[in-house]
């Protein structure tokens, strides 16, 4: 095949133009790419249904989606269509952060069960804030020291801390699905779920703070200023999300949209508010992920009860659908990208020692935070060692770590970013496939499932006359001692409950005083659970 010489000679005629692309070729290629993506999504959902129906726990849905992407990417790699297929999957981290991640994070906050979450709120905040900070610093310092001692690829301290921040983002979607199937303790589920939801937001804020410090070349900057920068981003994002949620509650309370002929308008406005919260925070230089998370929590608590019944059904089904599609696509793309991208496998030592350091950092995080929580908890509310081990084992890495690693490829110099990306993808595959697939065996070995375990997920938790959740970690203490310990343990929670019941709920919702403010939330959760088990 002859090639055209496009080099122009001095004084000669201009080089010939390349042959024009036949009309419709680009559209045909894009159509083929979309068809391939839809086919993989269909296969992932059908395979996930078959796995659930036959109770095959060693291959969870997320692992199946990841494997589908790996297989398709591997086949493309050994074929002569690699370049064109790679073009069909022109996926960037901006697409992930702007379109795929927001519905996943919003659904996490929107589907949060308020009673077990707030009854364990202190422990969840400790694990998510302090624990993530500990895991990030321990991982970053160990990676830096490993480079200094020539155990692994050497990274500067700032870049090591960035790696520690991005890899501290846990994504136990695989573990949580098995928790639901096997009927795990409600408090354990609340701890794992609550920590993972807030952990993503904290990890993003930490990563951006570390990246900002590195880009400003402020290695000698006061540590206090770095912490203040992180808190400013986190608290500002939280306030933005809560504010948008409260505004939406007031709008739906007083606008009178819950009438028969305005259901479409009501549903459209409800769907737009989460993205408004996300884009507002991003526009202000804050974290959209943190903002949309707390918007989801507030909108479920206050805005949701102001909707008509039809709109409540639509909202629950719509966000559950979006989240499921986004999660499946993310895991498929991760598998595809791992097989197609050029990986820096020359630094196997970096990957091996990173996995070891992450395990050490996760253990330091979980056991130290559990120790602190148990210091202030009464005897019947202690986090048992079995639950601490389950928490440590549940620290899978997934979509968030992968997306931040993609971002690191652009943020860091050539070589460093690619090495971090390769290590992150290897860690994601190993944790999702190995740890996710062995979760059922782990839960049975730790004896945190079974009919004899109190407070199992799926069972009715003991509720007081005021709707508060009673302790599930029961040591057989007397009724008087239980009451006294409960009053001590939940003093701050009771204050929040009283504030919510007497001031926030009457002001932001249209419920009557004698109504249970959680009734709409419980009905919606039942709808979501039924949809999830279909």
UniProtKB/TrEMBL annotation:
<feature type="transmembrane region" description="Helical">
    <location>
        <begin position="348"/>
        <end position="370"/>
    </location>
</feature>
<keyword id="KW-0406">Ion transport</keyword>
<keyword id="KW-0472">Membrane</keyword>
<dbReference type="InterPro" id="IPR004709">
    <property type="entry name" value="NaH_exchanger"/>
</dbReference>
<feature type="transmembrane region" description="Helical">
    <location>
        <begin position="272"/>
        <end position="294"/>
    </location>
</feature>
<keyword id="KW-0050">Antiport</keyword>
<protein>
    <recommendedName>
        <fullName>Sodium/hydrogen exchanger</fullName>
    </recommendedName>
</protein>
<keyword id="KW-0739">Sodium transport</keyword>
<dbReference type="GO" id="GO:0015386">
    <property type="term" value="F:potassium:proton antiporter activity"/>
</dbReference>
<feature type="transmembrane region" description="Helical">
    <location>
        <begin position="390"/>
        <end position="409"/>
    </location>
</feature>
<feature type="region of interest" description="Disordered">
    <location>
        <begin position="459"/>
        <end position="480"/>
    </location>
</feature>
<feature type="compositionally biased region" description="Polar residues">
    <location>
        <begin position="465"/>
        <end position="480"/>
    </location>
</feature>
<feature type="transmembrane region" description="Helical">
    <location>
        <begin position="58"/>
        <end position="75"/>
    </location>
</feature>
<feature type="transmembrane region" description="Helical">
    <location>
        <begin position="125"/>
        <end position="153"/>
    </location>
</feature>
<dbReference type="GO" id="GO:0015385">
    <property type="term" value="F:sodium:proton antiporter activity"/>
</dbReference>
<keyword id="KW-0633">Potassium transport</keyword>
<keyword id="KW-0812">Transmembrane</keyword>
<keyword id="KW-0915">Sodium</keyword>
<dbReference type="InterPro" id="IPR018422">
    <property type="entry name" value="Cation/H_exchanger_CPA1"/>
</dbReference>
<feature type="transmembrane region" description="Helical">
    <location>
        <begin position="32"/>
        <end position="51"/>
    </location>
</feature>
<feature type="compositionally biased region" description="Pro residues">
    <location>
        <begin position="11"/>
        <end position="23"/>
    </location>
</feature>
<feature type="transmembrane region" description="Helical">
    <location>
        <begin position="415"/>
        <end position="437"/>
    </location>
</feature>
<dbReference type="Pfam" id="PF00999">
    <property type="entry name" value="Na_H_Exchanger"/>
</dbReference>
<feature type="transmembrane region" description="Helical">
    <location>
        <begin position="223"/>
        <end position="252"/>
    </location>
</feature>
<dbReference type="GO" id="GO:0051453">
    <property type="term" value="P:regulation of intracellular pH"/>
</dbReference>
<dbReference type="InterPro" id="IPR006153">
    <property type="entry name" value="Cation/H_exchanger_TM"/>
</dbReference>
<comment type="similarity">
    <text>Belongs to the monovalent cation:proton antiporter 1 (CPA1) transporter (TC 2.A.36) family.</text>
</comment>
<feature type="domain" description="Cation/H+ exchanger transmembrane">
    <location>
        <begin position="43"/>
        <end position="444"/>
    </location>
</feature>
<feature type="region of interest" description="Disordered">
    <location>
        <begin position="1"/>
        <end position="27"/>
    </location>
</feature>
<feature type="transmembrane region" description="Helical">
    <location>
        <begin position="95"/>
        <end position="113"/>
    </location>
</feature>
<keyword id="KW-0813">Transport</keyword>
<keyword id="KW-0630">Potassium</keyword>
<dbReference type="GO" id="GO:0005886">
    <property type="term" value="C:plasma membrane"/>
</dbReference>
<dbReference type="GO" id="GO:0005768">
    <property type="term" value="C:endosome"/>
</dbReference>
<keyword id="KW-1133">Transmembrane helix</keyword>
<dbReference type="GO" id="GO:0098719">
    <property type="term" value="P:sodium ion import across plasma membrane"/>
</dbReference>
<feature type="region of interest" description="Disordered">
    <location>
        <begin position="507"/>
        <end position="534"/>
    </location>
</feature>
<feature type="transmembrane region" description="Helical">
    <location>
        <begin position="314"/>
        <end position="336"/>
    </location>
</feature>
